[in-house]
Amino acid sequence: MKLIILDRDGVINEDSDAFVKSVEEWIPLPGSIEAIARLCKAGWTVAVATNQSGLARGYFSEQTLEAMHRRLRELVAEQGGQVDLIRHCPHGPDDGCDCRKPLSGMFRSIAEHYGLSLDGVPTVGDSLRDLQAGAALGCQPYLVRTGKGAQTERKPLPEGTRVFDNLAAVADYLLEN
What we know:
Layout: E1 2-6, H1 32-41, E2 44-51, H2 62-78, E3 83-89, H3 105-114, E4 122-125, H4 128-135, E5 140-144, H5 149-152, E6 162-164, H6 167-176
Parallel strand pairs: 1-2, 1-4, 2-3, 4-5, 5-6
């Protein structure tokens, strides 16, 4: 199985310091939906691991989050692809969970779902915590410069991190290699 794990905000869709709180505010980044579909058509399984502390903060409901994810899945399906699995952390930064990135709980959950090791599995994020969560379980980290990625690129990154302009460039690289 060729699995890839994507962060959501800043990788697939526009990020916002004020949080993405509605389907209307959930705006795909140029080329991201097509990139997911191209990976699927080439045999990749796409999973998403996303911190969504806006739930704990009361900025939006589980139903609204589900509607955003339904929209993501619809757009990818229109391009002939599929988002196979979405895991989210609903907790706030001080809730003491093990799923909020940079901790690896969502990644462990994805590994258990598929019954496989994450050694070498590409994980794509725009923040250091996205990369750290996957790298802790052996994922190959890919940083994109979209979202908060340009600022993140100036920080010390996990060893072996590959840096690309956006998700479409990551897909190009993976499909060529």
